[in-house]
Amino acid sequence: MAKQAMPAAIQRLEDHVIHRIAAGEVVQRPASALKEMVENSLDAGAKHITVVLKEGGLKYLQIQDDGCGIRVEDLAILCHRHTTSKLQAYEDLDTIATLGFRGEALSSISFVSHVTVTTMTAPMQHGYRVKYCDGEMLPPGPKPVAAVPGTSIIVEDIFYNMPARRRAFKPGPEEHNLCLDVLQKYAIYQAGSVGFTLKRQGEARSDLHTMAKASRLDVIRNLFGPELAASLLSLQLTGGTGNVSETVPLDGPMGFVAQGYISNLTYTSRKSVLILFINGRPVEQGQLKRAIEAMYIAQNPKATKPWVYLDLQLPPRQMEVNVHPTKKEVGLLHQQEIIDAICGSVEQVLRTTMNSRTFAINKPAMLAPPVSAHAAGDAVAASAPAATVSRAASGEAASQPQSQNALQDATAPRQNAVPSQPTQPYYRPQKLVRTDHRSQTLDGFLVSQASAAAVASAAAAAPRRRSARPANAAASVNNNGDDDDVMIIDNGIAAAKSAGRHALFSNAGLHLQAAAAEEVAAAEEVAAAEEVA
Fold first, then answer.
1. pLDDT in tens, 245-274
2. What are phi and psi of 10, to 5 degrees?
3. SS3 264
4. Alpha-carbon dihedral of residues 204, 209, 214, 220, nearest 10 degrees?
5. CB-CB contact of 115 with 131 (8 Å)
6. What's the rounded Cα separation, in Å, for the pair 448 and 462?
7. 117, 282, 423, 532: most buried, per Cβ within 10 A?
8. 260, 311 contact by CB (below 8 A)
9. How far apart are CA 198 and CA 173, in angstroms?
10. Alpha carbons 262 and 413: distance in angstroms, whole number
């Protein structure tokens, strides 16, 4: 019988082990540390926030704001666990209005990095600088320094004491882009009140810069480009009673107010984007995102990657904020009803805009106006070869000059031709794009009047040339038994082909093509007659 194992003894963990484990939950990567510090700056009333990064925040991360600052008396316990100025009792969570409330962000950051804080309040003549490690202030304590009102926090060598976590981050722009994504979300929500700047250490050019007084649509255009901004549709929604004040009890009626922007059905992207703020907190809501994507697919199967920004306001007592270590998820009392109402409003906005859509197309080419049938006939007559070729009575010596003259007459343009009058360029209607089915016609499937006249003229002249050419050619062959006349005809045909190719750029091109085809047929018949002779 196997010997039963003895249970292990339960013992209390030391404080530094507890804090380091908790720090790994709150600070998962540099972007999560940046999010916590940005929320502290917003709670301090900052109007502009500047972030400087090196190696995506792994080597160096600095955030500076112009908020109210930190009192010098509070610097000793600034990085202690669960020290905060935003919460006094547990019941305050029901109506909490600040973004931070646990008091563990700076404590967690100090346990996995080296932290330096420089702060200055408005009444003070100078600021103070303090360094922290493992939640404790390092000696000699607060040091007077020159500063500006506000707070500056520098985080260096994050995860220096967690080698496994540090090796998990690969070199490259991934961490920098995640920090950029955090600031983009806050820049959109705080548009009109707070400005943001993000740059790399040692570089003057900033990767993100927004003005505090810029409108939300201007900020979106600045961050995501004019193409997205031009395709956005405004969304306004009031659900239930519309009352979102703190006085609404937990078991009170549902009420919410939502506003934001959604992309239209012609916008295309590689991935879906949902920027959702609930009572000022950036949260993730997978169920709402999937429902909106399904709504877009129902309207247009190709519009499967929408871009949505939504600001949702709810009664504070009907929302639970303390459900996730990083506060990226919240609990809603009437979650399914709110999602259904938002999706219904999105569908209504999309259906309203389906009557008219805007498509980006290439600019239509400017073409020359069509040539009249009479002008097309003159052009063909000028470039066509002589209809009848006969041998001179003077004998063999006169055939060579005659062949050269025939070739020159076939290839040279007429000297007395009337020049065409200059006209203004125009757009051919059949080449334009129509988007309204009620105004579509069959003009695009029909040839122009000039082209139709040229084809008809070529068809009428074809029988006459076909009946005249073989007889004349056969007589020439029978009288002399020579191939010179055939060579003259071949040269004329080649000249006609060349002239026809150049004339294809005008509306008489079809006429010249038909004439060239007839000449080829006549040459074949001459060759057949020669073989018979």
1. 777 777 778 888 999 999 998 888 888 999
2. -90, 130
3. coil
4. 140
5. yes
6. 21
7. 117
8. yes
9. 14
10. 63
